[in-house]
Amino acid sequence: MSEVEKQDYIKYWVKTSEEDLVSMESVFIAGRYDWALFIGHLALEKILKAAWIKNNESNIPIRTHNLLKISEEANLGFNEKDILILNRVTNFHLETRYPDYKLDFFKGCTKEFAEENIKSIKGLYECIKEKI
Fold first, then answer.
1. What is the pTM of this model?
2. What is the pLDDT of residues 93-108, one digit of tens each?
3. Which residue range forms the structural domain that includes residue 9?
4. pLDDT tens for residues 13-31?
5. Do residues 131 and 122 lie in contact, with contact meaning Cβ atoms separated by under 8 Å?
6. Which of 15, 39, 80, 89 has the CA that lies 20 to 30 A from 21?
């Protein structure tokens, strides 16, 4: 893969992750806190996949939604606090997607809970983006 191709793939993942951050905010404003967190997961997943491509030889990142696994294979070297955030946000993917988790998650997904986690998502997002 040429460096130009690699940069094009990285730009694709960064651009789509940025679009997801905007969508996360819009959905949060609409009061759909569970879905805002789901989209926050997507934004982190995509920016991590951009970092993965930067730090690996392939232009096709691993096929997983596990944020910690992607970050480990991207060699980002996160600290314990960031690892906890990655694990927590990975759960948002499961909890909003599968019916047996969704109802319980929806009940506990208050505005305050979502705000706190969106703040963590944005902070970690910026940290990852700086590494690309």
1. 0.92
2. 865 566 666 666 667 7
3. 3-130
4. 999 999 999 999 999 999 9
5. no
6. 80
